[in-house]
From TrEMBL:
Keywords, sorted A to Z: Acyltransferase, Amino-acid biosynthesis, Arginine biosynthesis, Autocatalytic cleavage, Cytoplasm, Multifunctional enzyme, Transferase
EC number(s) per entry: 2.3.1.35, 2.3.1.1
Family under the similarity heading: Belongs to the ArgJ family.
UniProt xrefs under PANTHER family: ARGININE BIOSYNTHESIS BIFUNCTIONAL PROTEIN ARGJ (PTHR23100), ARGININE BIOSYNTHESIS BIFUNCTIONAL PROTEIN ARGJ, MITOCHONDRIAL (PTHR23100:SF0)
Residues spanning the membrane: none
Active-site residues, as the UniProt record annotates them: 190
The protein, known as: Arginine biosynthesis bifunctional protein ArgJ
Signal peptide: none
Keyword Amino-acid biosynthesis: yes
Single GO cellular component term: cytoplasm
Chief location category: cytoplasm
Amino acid sequence: MKQITGGATAAKGFQAACTAAGIKYENRTDMAMIYSQVPCRVAGTFTTNLVKAAPVLWDRDIVKNSDYAQAVVVNAGIANACTGQEGLDYCQKTADQAAKVLGIPASAVCVASTGVIGKQLPIDRIMAGVDALAPKLADGVEAGNAAAKAIMTTDTHEKEVAVTFEIGGKTVTIGGMCKGSGMIHPNMCTMLAFVTTDLAISKELLQEALSANVKDTFNMISVDGDTSTNDTLLLMANGLAENPEITEKGADYDAFCEALNFVNTTLAKMMAGDGEGATALFEVTVVNAETKEQAQVLAKSVICSSLTKAAIFGHDANWGRILCAMGYSGAAFDPDKVDLYFESKGGKIKLIENGVALDYSEEEATKILSEPEVTAIADLKLGDAQGTAWGCDLSYDYVKINADYRS
């Protein structure tokens, strides 16, 4: 596997475009389109929030019932959530318009929205945006990067990644783009992610691979504990790599899963590290657990702890907050066996051993915690399983951003 420059347009046959439709933002692009020159097998996972935005309902139906998908239309600024039948009708109108200009069925058009909940889309601007997007479709790095920028809301930078790998003597590419900075929590988050590949694979295995992988990637991040109404992750495979189609599990399927895991992990960490107001990516790894589930529950509890996140922002080695968050996670463990470390490019330091504080240097700990990527490692000494979760620190700017988000 080799990482390459690019994102959603890295794989053969995929194009992208962006435009400024004036949906909410001024002087920036706010709509994007991804298009495959040939029909795609499509898989998806969506928010677990009971309140689901209209685009989630639309895409979920396409993933389940459509023979294929070929395009995705995305807008930033308005979420089209809690908008009733009118919001669903706007999904239909958007898909119909895309179908018209692209020459494909409306049932092959996915839609996605992100932004403020409760407002109706300015459908005339959306329709005009679709008309503007189609002629701009292009392959290559620049088109993909421009699309990744267009779907941002409070994100501070675009998020994309791509890799190549070999299957059946053919070079296969998988790449993707995502957005997400706030209202991010495990169980899919206001995250939108679009992953594309030229792999030939059955729809059933495509969905199985995605559903399994999301548990270890996007579902292991949290910024603020809020599970969004709009979370959508779509994976499209058009088969243009011309590898022997993967129809059963084996070495080829495993190679694909490895590449998918790299792409999804990279995108997920980008979102966690770009949390609203964040200054650091905060990774928590629990090792030597009895089970993977136990390790993941403990790791997620720590990254969701507001007190721990605030300590990371202040570069304060307040390990008691971490042990406390582990204690209320619901996962059983022996606190008298736990060793805890902090690690970053600034070094590694052991803070507690067998649940008791060591005589460590606060100055050295602060130096380690001052890096833009910080890891806490908890050793349970109970088994050989492990799990990792990703979050960010909690800064003053998080409140500032969210206090006036609608304006």
